[in-house]
């Protein structure tokens, strides 16, 4: 399957634990984006990464959230000391290039995080 | 924060009906508009990337038009089928980020139009 792969599909964490969400972009794609969908809301941008670089993290909460996209391996979205308000669906997307005219995003199936 | 509005929020039609819905976006500094189709339990899937005023794109029974001067795009579905049931999202790139020398970065998504087609 050459699509965007996210895992796990569902993740349950207790308050205070850490959540690690993984995303492998489509083959050949080096641009990765993380979006969050809170209950009853639309998709909200969190962060845009290229290999080994964070390009735009303006949508990421300042504390507890971090993201990386190492040279080898998947992109990781890490949430430390989770709180109930972090419960949401987290979607990863990738694109082949960055030409805004010709580069639609390819999305994964998302990770649904539930904080108990 | 850019305001991308979609209407209606939800739509129920009978199989065979044709339908359309709207995406409104800021008309200044327009570069592109994306349409995505999102079926339940699946991932959003790109339908169209629209860039030119007056452009019309078509994919099977689905087509979209674009008016960049007034800031809206219409998505049309001709002869709706139950398999068309999905949420249709439009998205607008962050042009401020574009001005800083990057291209596609943050997309602002509308909340979508949820279409249900009854057999």
Explain the layout of strands and helices.
The complex is a heterodimer of chains A (116) and B (119).
Chain A: E1 5-7, E2 10-13, E3 19-24, E4 31-37, E5 43-50, E6 53-56, E7 65-68, E8 75-79, E9 88-95, E10 106-107, E11 111-115
Chain B: E1 5-7, E2 10-14, E3 19-24, E4 33-38, E5 45-50, E6 56-59, E7 62-67, E8 72-77, E9 86-93, H1 95-99, E10 107-109, E11 113-118
Parallel strand pairs in B: 2-11
Antiparallel strand pairs in B: 1-3, 3-8, 4-5, 4-9, 6-7, 7-8, 9-10, 9-11
Uncertain spans of chain A, ≥5 residues at pLDDT below 50? none
The count of β-strands of chain A is 11
| pLDDT averaged over residues of chain B | 89
As a percent range, the share of strand residues of chain B is over 45%
The geometry of chain B reads as globular
Helix content of chain B: under 10%
User: Which structural category do the helix and sheet elements of chain B fall into?
Assistant: mainly beta
The best one-word shape of chain A is: globular
Name the quaternary structure.
heterodimer
Total count of strands of chain B: 11
Please summarize the sheet with the most strands of chain B. 6 strands, mixed
Question: Which strand-content bin applies to the residues of chain A?
Answer: over 45%
**Separation, N- and C-terminal Cα atoms of chain B:** 39 Å
Largest sheet of chain A: 7 strands, mixed
């Amino acid at each position: 399957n050459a699509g965007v792969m996210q895992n796990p599909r569902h993740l349950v964490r207790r308050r205070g634990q850490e959540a690690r969400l993984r995303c492998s972009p489509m083959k050949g794609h080096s641009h990765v984006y993380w979006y969050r969908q809170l209950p009853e809301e639309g998709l909200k941008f969190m962060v845009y990464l290229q290999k080994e670089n964070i390009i735009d993290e303006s949508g990421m909460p300042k504390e507890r959230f971090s993201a990386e996209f190492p040279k080898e391996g998947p992109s990781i979205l890490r949430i430390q000391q989770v709180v109930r308000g972090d419960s949401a669906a987290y979607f990863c997307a990738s694109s082949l290039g960055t030409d805004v005219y010709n580069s639609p995003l390819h999305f994964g199936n998302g990770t649904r995080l539930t904080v108990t | 924060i850019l305001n991308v509005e979609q209407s209606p929020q939800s739509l129920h039609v009978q199989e065979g009906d044709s339908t359309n819905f709207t995406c409104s976006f800021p008309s200044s500094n327009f570069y592109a508009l994306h349409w995505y189709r999102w079926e339940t339990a699946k991932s959003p899937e790109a339908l169209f990337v629209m860039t030119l005023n007056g452009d019309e794109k078509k994919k099977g029974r689905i087509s979209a038009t674009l008016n960049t001067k007034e800031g809206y795009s219409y998505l049309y579905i001709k002869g709706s089928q139950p398999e068309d049931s999905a949420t249709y999202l439009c998205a607008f790139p962050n042009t401020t980020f574009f001005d800083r020398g990057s291209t596609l970065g943050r997309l602002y998504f509308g909340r979508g139009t949820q279409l249900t087609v009854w057999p």
